[in-house]
């Protein structure tokens, strides 16, 4: 295996945005880069594009696979200098080590657009034209990386995508075996769902701090942050289910009319074409969430400069989670990255608040209490938006909810997936153990 120096700036190898072709092989920048390769790259690239094309109807899976295939092909072609077809199981360890600690030149501070494009003409006579790769795009985002490398859940996803790639290469009769299968278990070990979920349950103190933090953020952004947090927790939805969905036929907008008033009561409707795995559902809306929706709409009315109804109507065509820019807030909603960044900002405010509380307790001489709050503050930095979904499920079941209802609200096709939430909070279990009758 040759180890070529990283003498080039990484660039995206795949496209597929907004119904555009996945392949970039007809672009000058692509041809210039692959001209340095001393093997026939086209067969494996063609299979990878076919795999991604088959996933265009599942946008979230498509983006995940595209990200991981970009990283793998860039590493294999331009770092190692060899074809993906010659990959051996033992070499997967080197790739895992690479994604755990990629070169600084492969990491960006924030997520950037993949390509630079010219805007379409106003008369619609021409579509966007790719000018080249975005010079600021990088395969990895620094701030999303843990000190120990790529998160285990991300590695599970990565191995899934690579295994699918090599399965497709086998079907195309380009190779005979899948080098990912044996290396996957060696690199990941046993992935226990229950253990993963327990690690991702935020405490009540952390949840309370997050709501308090959103109130401390000034103006419309603070109101929107609390609104987003409320929907994530009280509905147990995925971030992608609060955003527009891009499909080959166009864009399915995410509007306020997902809140429906039915004869049975208020529900939040997720259409079949929007839910994960094309599974739609109706989620009951609690009075608490309705109050949060009213609160946000009051702030939204002020920003719009016109009065909105207290709760959404079916005829309303406003974005569910609007931009804060007055020129676009009536027509455009936040995308998933923007929502994640907003949650991250709230978590940072919550962390600082808890650290302030900890310092006050320490000054008052309560070191144990200060240490406990400090640990809660530190734990906030590990939280992602998906943790609200775990918290929703755990609290719903712990409060006596019917597990079948929880399954339906979460959109799980298998009850076993929902059953992993049937456990008491660890702190509660510890307290319960302490109270057990002592037998002398």
Automatic annotation (TrEMBL):
Secreted listed as a keyword: no
Keyword rRNA processing: no
Subcellular location: Cytoplasm
Keywords: DNA integration, DNA recombination
Gene Ontology CC: cytoplasm
A GO term, aspect molecular function: DNA binding
InterPro entries: DNA_brk_join_enz, Integrase-like_cat_sf, Integrase_catalytic, Tyrosine_recombinase_XerCD
Chief location: cytoplasm
PROSITE patterns in UniProt: TYR_RECOMBINASE
Protein name as annotated: Site-specific integrase
Organism: Aeromonas veronii
């Amino acid at each position: 295996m040759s180890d070529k120096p990283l003498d080039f700036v990484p660039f995206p190898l795949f496209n597929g945005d907004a119904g555009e072709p996945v392949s970039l092989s007809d672009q000058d920048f692509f041809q210039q880069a692959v001209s340095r390769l001393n093997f026939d790259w086209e067969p494996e690239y063609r299979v990878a594009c076919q795999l991604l094309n088959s996933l265009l109807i599942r946008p979230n899976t498509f983006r995940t696979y595209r990200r991981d295939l970009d990283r793998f092909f860039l590493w294999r072609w331009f770092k190692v200098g060899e074809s993906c077809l010659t990959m051996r199981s033992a070499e997967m360890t080197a790739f895992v080590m690479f994604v755990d600690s990629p070169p600084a030149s492969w990491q960006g501070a924030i997520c950037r657009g993949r390509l630079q494009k010219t805007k379409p003409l106003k008369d619609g006579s021409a579509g966007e034209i790719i000018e080249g790769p975005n010079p600021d795009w990088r395969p990895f985002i620094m701030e999303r990386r843990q000190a120990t490398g790529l998160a285990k859940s991300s590695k599970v996803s990565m191995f899934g995508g690579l295994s699918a790639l090599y399965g497709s290469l086998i079907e195309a009769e380009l190779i005979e075996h899948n080098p990912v299968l044996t290396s996957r278990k060696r690199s990941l070990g046993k992935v226990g769902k229950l253990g993963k979920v327990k690690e991702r349950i935020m405490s009540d103190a952390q949840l309370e701090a997050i709501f308090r933090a959103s109130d401390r953020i000034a103006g419309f952004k603070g109101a929107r942050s609390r609104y987003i947090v409320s929907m994530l927790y009280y509905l147990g939805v995925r971030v992608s289910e609060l955003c527009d969905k891009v499909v080959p036929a166009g864009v399915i907008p995410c509007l306020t009319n997902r809140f429906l008033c039915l004869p049975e009561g208020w529900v939040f409707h997720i259409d079949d074409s929007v839910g994960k795995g094309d599974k739609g559902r109706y989620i009951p809306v609690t009075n608490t969430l309705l109050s949060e929706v009213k609160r946000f709409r009051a702030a939204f009315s002020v920003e719009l400069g016109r009065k909105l109804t207290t709760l959404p109507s079916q005829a309303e065509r406003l974005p569910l989670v609007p931009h804060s820019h007055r020129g676009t807030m009536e027509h455009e909603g936040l995308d998933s990255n923007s929502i994640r960044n907003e949650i991250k900002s709230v978590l940072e405010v919550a962390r600082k608040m808890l650290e302030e509380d900890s310092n006050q307790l320490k000054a008052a001489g309560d070191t144990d209490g200060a240490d406990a709050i400090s640990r809660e503050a530190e734990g906030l930095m590990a939280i992602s938006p998906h943790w609200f979904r775990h918290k929703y499920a755990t609290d719903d079941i712990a409060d006596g909810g019917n597990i079948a209802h929880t399954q339906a609200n979460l959109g799980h096709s298998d009850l076993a997936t929902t059953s992993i939430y049937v456990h008491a909070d660890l702190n509660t279990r510890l307290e319960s153990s302490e109270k057990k009758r002592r037998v002398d």
